[in-house]
Fold this protein.
Amino acid sequence: MVKQESAVRTVLEPLAHFDLSSTQTQTSIRSLAVSTVSNSQTLIYVGTESGSLLLLSSNPEDTSKEEPAPDVPQKNKPGPGTVSFIRSVSVGESSVESVIVLREIGKVLVLCDGYLHLVDALLGQSVKRLSSVKGVSAIAKRVRSSETESSNLWETFDIAKDNSYSSTSQRILQKLGGGIRANGTIVKEHVQQSEGNYVFSIVIGKRLLLIELVLGNRAGKSDREVDDVDSAFVILKEIQCIDGVKSMVWLNDSVIVGTSNGYSLFSCVTGQSGVIFSLPDVSSHTLLKLLWKERKVLLLVDNVGVVVDSHGQPIGGSLVFYMTPNSIGELSLYAIVVGDGKMELYHKKSGNTIQTITFGGEGVGPCIVADEEDGGGKLVVVATATKVICYRKVPSEEQIKDLLRKKDFKEAISLVQELECEGEMSKEMLSFVHAQVGYLLLFDLHFEEAVDHFLQSETMQPSEVFPFIMRDPSRWSLLVPRNRYWGLHPPPAPLEDVVDDGLMAIQRAIFLKKAGVETAVDDEFLLNPPNRAELLELAIKNIIRYLKVSRETELTSSVREGVDTLLMYLYRALNLVDDMEKLASSGNSCVVEELETLLDDSGHLRTLAFLYSCKGRSSKALSIWRILARNYSSGLWKDPALGTGLQDGNTNVLSGRDVAAAEASKILEESSDQDLVLQHLGWIADINPVLAVKILTSEKRLIQLSPDEVVAAIDSKKVEILQRYLQWLIEDQDSNDTQLHTLYALSLAKSAVESFEADTISQDAGGNSIFQCPVRERLQIFLQSSDLYDPEEVLDLIEGSELWLEKAILYRKSGQETLVLQILALKLEDSEAAEQYCAEIGRPDAYMQLLDMYLDPQNGKEPMFKAAVRLLHNHGESLDPLQVLETLSPDMPLQLASDTILRMFRARIHHHRQGQIVHNLSHAIDVDTRLARMEERSRHVQINDESLCDSCHARLGTKLFAMYPDDTVVCYKCFRRQGESTSVTGHDFRRDILFKPGWLVTR
């Protein structure tokens, strides 16, 4: 196995030592045991080769303010950091092999001369030998992980029926005053049939006995008041074992023993055994250690510690020791091994060497280490042949501080995490250490790592970094908490000072290194001294990173104001324009008064405008956008769009003027301040008329603008803006103001006349027009759809123009039928429209009047025979044949006239017969069904003032409407809206939709 590199921690520090020669005892130490009485007293039991048991007392802490421990004579009570001898007793004639402290009852169980001896904890009474068992070579106390993982031995075993040890049990129970009935049942009343805290496994030769210490005559007595004479062992079970057991551990239901040949496991329930490891002949001695915190067992194989569970299965990784241990102990997270005068601490999970301590020179012989029973104490005791040395566990905080002073930040955080995971340190302390490490790294100029630790601290407040940004005193000084961080770093200072002090320390370290003096400055900085500007930029970027993350957490309003305001300061320091504008234009808590001068003086007017807008200061924001638009236009400022260098010709990049107008329009679209809107409307209209229209027609504002004042304020040169605003009022706001309708019609008519005179009539929307369709088309649609304008005023305006269709619509509104027919038939030569108009009039004389116009156009114009023939063909049945014959022109070709007259007569006959058929069928067919079928065949559609739009369900009234081939009828507003997103506007509204041949449309 490869040994992992390890960091060094100071986990243990020397406390005191005791020399056995001071007791004038000429012997060596064989065994050790430790028992903590309180924070101020720890008892140390030393077993010697000569069979004596010594009691030492250690005081690991300063207890000057504590009450004296009652169990130790005051004259022998040790002072802080000392070990004192209390007394000793003689147990036997050979070495004391094992010492087990029964702290709950104030007793100590000692293995000596093959017997078990019981003595009180302070060695004040005589030693009692428990003669019920002899020849014991090893003993181990049972440890249970939980009730679910181990069995209750009294419930598992039937002692009375086990012949292998019935005679022994009888003798013991007889001594206790009980007896055995004829059937062999235990009858001693006070022997409870449940397992107590004092169950042990012992090895006698090839026998493994499971025994329990039974305390007799306990009525009315505490455990400490039980007389030794009342104590004895009850054998629970006997298991066939193996020779040469040197060490033993009992965990749950398994007893693990170690011999020179390896390790074996015995089940205390079934008695079955199995081999865990077999060792080669060259292997060292076997050694077992129960790891109390994990409830696992460590088996030593040469210099490797293998951790197994209660079933003998290896768990996790192995620990590789630098030496072959004489003894193994446990302290919190660490395994302790001693040998050859050294003590080493290994992390139980990582296997890393944490600390190495030398306490004796080479050749000191076997060493022993003892720890407190639960493995979580504060004292570790090691012993050579003649010395006992106590080591105190350094408090966790002191360990962390020591690592931080050594700049070993990673190891410090690792230690805190381990302690927190083990429940020995709170989560708040972990956050505290992260913050402390962050500060140390910050002053060491490792800004990125510092902020990483700041972000991992859940208790650190963003206001703690304010002093690094603004000098005290400032608006934010009172928000900074006065936390204490162990005094390991200087007080917070502006980042410029931190960088300057750090650079001075680097220069000083470089000088000292040349003189051969080692310093704590990072070698990387010594080899490549950093640049001040680069360091300062890196520091600001990382503080920005911390504040940006902090913005997403729950903060008080005052702290949030400080975070956002100081974040803007830092953005400004690095000229991060995009970040500044993003922060200013989004929801933020910046204090405007703190930033106005900064942004104005530095020329970041866009950011200031966004900030004003976000804080509801619309007037100031609009003033800035107006200034920016004027400066971009005049060339005083460089347009940002000009510096982008477009690579793609299709890329649409807005100029600075456009952006200024767009941002101003966003403010004005929501503003109900009419004066403010009209004040800034002009310059926005100069840049982008569409934005001006969006401002005027916005429905985002709570209170709409006054139409009269808006119309009066619109520049007379901005005709399209006026028209679009009037259109919105009329069509979208359903305005019934006759003045607005007339104004709109006059404006459209004037534009149409000018367009016609300039010969720019086109079906396109036109170059920079804000409208999608030509002005004449908009004029025609409006003239047809509205009944609220004054036709006479419009006629006066276009009277001398060539807008004949518009004139026809207006004459129609005025009821001048003849003029309408003349324009449709003679000026526009639109036979279809003329015939449709005749149908609307509904009188037969209208067709005759139209026929007269075709045959006698006057004004030197040739007769329109084809149009006349079409009229006769389509509507001949409506004309009087005699009148037609009288009207026919003598110049009309005979063939054409005869065919026309013949068709007219046939049509009349067909129409007459058709009427007779219908009349005869009406007696046999339901009237409603007949009418429905006739309506379907003739596609007759009745539209009246109460009809509803099939799209918006509004009443059609007198408005212009559209009818699709599927008989769907929609109002003009819905028709227009549909046309903006579909190809509906491709229809000729006048011909294809409203006046489709074969349809009868009435109101």
